[in-house]
Amino acid sequence: MTGSQITSILSYISVFFAPIFVPLIVLIAGNNYSRAHAGKALVSHLIPTLMILAIGIWVYLSDGMFAYSNFFWTLLSLIALVQVIIMILNVLWAIRVAREEPQE
């Protein structure tokens, strides 16, 4: 396993310990192989983050009254489901990178 594969795998599994930061660092400092995977990981980490940010702004602008509605809890459940799916996908993508032949 090469260093490029290791940084690519770290980009994907960083969803568990440092989402957004690790893929961003690899995107800036990595080689072309690592950058391609870091970009994909960054997008997959940004999706739930932006969803949570949007719902937080919505709650703030509604003076907290939105947090008591059923629609809020439905959206929160949807965000949690999306996050679980993205975590599973990131693990699968990391496994796929680990099983690839080393890049020369």
Residue share in β-strands:
under 5%
N- to C-terminal separation? Answer: 11 Å
Average of pLDDT: 87
Radius of gyration: 17 Å
Number of strands: 0
Q: What overall form do the CA principal axes indicate? A: elongated
Low-confidence stretches: none
Q: How helical, in percent, are the residues? A: over 70%
Tally of separate domains: 1
Keywords: Membrane, Transmembrane, Transmembrane helix
Protein name: DUF4870 domain-containing protein
Transmembrane segments: 6-29, 41-61, 73-95
Organism: Marinococcus halophilus
Question: Could you give a quick summary of the protein structure above?
Answer:
With 104 residues, the protein is an all-alpha fold. 77% of the residues lie in helices and 0% in strands. The radius of gyration is 17 Å and the shape is elongated.
Description:
Helix content is 77%, strand content 0%. It has four helices and no strands. The protein is mainly alpha-helical. The longest helix is centred in the middle third of the chain and has 30 residues. It starts with a helix and ends in a 5-residue tail after the last helix.
Task: Describe the SSE topology.
Layout lengths: L2 H11 L7 H9 L2 H30 L8 H30 L5
Helix pairs in contact: 1-3, 1-4, 2-3, 3-4
Organism: Marinococcus halophilus
Protein name: DUF4870 domain-containing protein
Keywords: Membrane, Transmembrane, Transmembrane helix
Keywords:
mainly alpha; DUF4870 domain-containing protein; elongated; transmembrane helix; 77% helix; membrane; 104 residues; transmembrane
